[in-house]
Design brief:
The chain is an alpha+beta fold. It has 2 domains: about 35-150, Immunoglobulin-like; about 155-235, Immunoglobulins (Immunoglobulin-like, Sandwich), CATH 2.60.40.10. It is rod-shaped. The termini are far apart. It has helices spanning about 1-30, 250-280, and strands at about 35-45, 55, 60-65, 75-80, 85-95, 100-105, 105-110, 115, 125-130, 140, 150, 155, 160-165, 175-180, 185-190, 195, 200-205, 205-210, 220-225, 230, 235, 245, 245-250. Strands 2, 3, 5, 6, 8 and 9 form a 6-stranded antiparallel β-sheet that branches. Strands 1, 4, 7, 10 and 11 form a 5-stranded mixed β-sheet that branches.
Length: about 280
């Protein structure tokens, strides 16, 4: 009898230890759940925002990101065990999480997506309250159509160009124009300090910058507008005056003036000499 009790106790101990090991093994193999977030992004006019990066993070780490398609729709997978501090933003320029990232200002959002109250955030980051959504499986639909999309502002800025010439001299009267393809988006004339402030309603984009100034070669380059700023000074190159036998037009005119002056002196001398001779004969 005693031996049977010992055997039963040993079996029970082995069962408990096996259960503990199995439990520990399961807990170590546990993985965080994965959720899918679907929604739409549009501009203020309601048009789909295409090929823009949408980012979901938890204030410290990017958990997932995706790109809007031709209809403005995005689908982002996020793997996390904590959904209490999820945020969303739309990248305008640069790479998400890297220096130089510029985000759209968000002007309207569906219910359940709230503006962050972080000072200086300028409404570019929103928080997600998942309790306001009813998931289908593991999928949360943040907006069901482009008509109920997250709306972003048409990002605009003020652009100030600084134009100088030889030896860094500020150029007054230079005509500065920004082109979108062949259409002029904004234009202005530089002041005595060489500065020209263009319209404050220039959308974030890449433009063709053209500068023209008397006595200088035309300047042309691409210009990326992504924030209000004074761009580095642009130095124009002086035009080279046309030459003949190594002489510029200015030098040729000077030489012509000298020759003409000498000719007039000679003619005057001849005329005076003739008159003098005629007076002597009389």
């Amino acid at each position: 009898m005693h031996g049977k009790l010992v055997a039963i106790l040993l079996a029970a101990m082995m069962f408990v230890s096996t259960a503990v090991v199995f439990s520990d093994s399961n807990s170590s193999d546990a993985v965080d759940p994965t959720y899918t977030f679907v929604g739409y992004v549009s501009n203020e006019a309601g048009a789909a925002l295409v090929s823009k990066t949408v980012v979901i993070d938890n204030a410290t780490t990017i958990l997932g990101q995706g790109t809007t398609d031709s209809t403005g729709k995005f689908s982002i997978e996020v793997t996390t065990s904590d959904t209490s501090n999820l945020r969303i933003r739309i990248v305008y320029e640069g790479t998400a999480g890297q220096a130089g990232e510029v985000n759209y200002k968000i002007v309207n959002a569906p219910e359940g997506i709230e503006w962050m109250s972080t000072p200086g955030d300028d409404h570019t980051v929103l928080s997600l309250d998942l309790s306001k959504f009813t998931p289908v499986g593991d999928t949360y639909t943040l907006s069901s159509s482009i008509g109920h999309a997250i709306q972003v502002a048409n990002a605009t800025s003020t652009v100030t160009i600084h134009v100088v010439g030889k030896d860094g001299k500020e150029l007054n009267g230079a005509k500065i124009s920004l082109y979108d393809d062949k259409k002029i988006v904004a234009s202005g004339i530089s002041d005595y300090n060489g500065h020209c402030e263009l319209s404050s309603t220039i959308n974030y984009d890449t433009y063709r910058l053209v500068i023209k100034c008397n006595g200088y070669k035309d300047y042309e380059s691409s210009l990326v507008v992504n924030e209000s700023q004074i761009y580095p000074e642009i130095t124009l190159t002086e035009k080279q005056a046309p030459t003949f036998l190594g002489m510029t037009t200015y030098h040729i005119l000077m030489l012509f003036g000298v020759i003409l002056g000498l000719a007039l002196v000679v003619i005057s001398y001849i005329l005076v000499a003739r008159n003098w001779k005629g007076m002597q004969e009389d």
